[in-house]
Design goal:
The protein is of the alpha/beta class. The protein has 10 helices and 11 strands. It binds zinc ion.
């Protein structure tokens, strides 16, 4: 919220200055456009921590440790993801959607029993999430928390907003629910790009210690990419850890 507040103050000061200088109308329009541009950029790039603090990697990590995160499950494909993770002795963090959790409780139990970590990705994952009131965002988070609780028996701490969208309402809701917001710094674009090799090459070029990879456990394409990725990380002696271990932050609270 701090950066957003600073930008508001800065733009207001500039507007007052322009007014005092009797500036032309287009100068005011220019400031307004810059404000809209910066705010929209801040809404869609969690790495800027524009409205709230989001953890997108561990910049201090010097050892070859990396985290793989999966959004939007559990899904029929998650079983294949879990098989692969087991084969490569890798632990992952799953940001689950409430409506999907209700469909696949067995997969949730398997994730827990195999040592993976669960995070909150809202109950509905609504396309209108960015337009929700703070109250509605809070409701979405808390409803999913209580579903997740059935599997963890502990309060979930990690939250990832749908589409990585943040705004003042999301910031207010998260500060009230006291979740830790988790982003990513290695975006696979696995829901956008069709070519598996392109997705893999994209991830490969960004791999670094302390990185957080974003994948979706919702397609066979991602399962295939994951297999290549696990092979690569194994050959490069990377330790694939859960978010709590990468960031030294608690995943759950008693
Ligand atoms: Zn999502």
């Amino acid at each position: 919220m701090l950066k957003h507040r600073n930008i508001i103050v800065l733009c207001l000061l500039l507007l007052v200055l322009l007014f005092a200088l009797n500036a032309k109308w287009w100068a005011f329009l220019f400031i307004l456009m810059v404000f809209v541009g910066v705010t929209s950029w801040g809404s869609f790039d969690l790495r800027l921590s524009y409205f709230l603090t989001a953890h997108c990697n561990n910049p201090k990590e010097k050892e070859d440790k990396i985290a793989i995160t999966f959004d939007d499950g559990p899904h029929e494909m998650t079983e294949k993801v879990l098989d692969l993770l087991q084969n490569y002795n890798a632990k992952a963090t799953f940001f689950c959607i409430g409506t999907q959790i209700e469909k696949h409780p067995d997969i949730m139990n398997r994730m827990m029993s195999e040592g993976h970590i669960l995070g909150n990705h809202t109950y509905f994952h609504s396309k209108s999430f960015g337009f929700f009131s703070a109250e509605k965002v809070k409701e979405e988070i808390l409803k999913n928390d209580s579903l997740l609780f059935q599997f963890t028996n502990k309060k979930i701490k990690f939250f990832r907003p749908p589409f990585g969208v943040t705004n003042p309402n999301v910031a207010r809701a998260v500060s009230e629910t006291k979740h830790t917001v988790i982003g990513w710094n290695i975006r696979s674009l696995d829901t956008v790009i069709d070519d598996e090799n392109k997705i893999f090459e994209r991830i490969k070029s960004k791999i670094e210690p302390g990185g957080i990879i974003l994948l979706h456990d919702t397609s066979l394409k991602t399962v295939n990419v994951l297999e290549q990725l696990l092979l690569l990380l194994q050959s490069e002696k990377y330790d694939i850890v859960t978010i709590d271990k990468l960031l030294n932050l608690p995943a759950y609270e008693d």
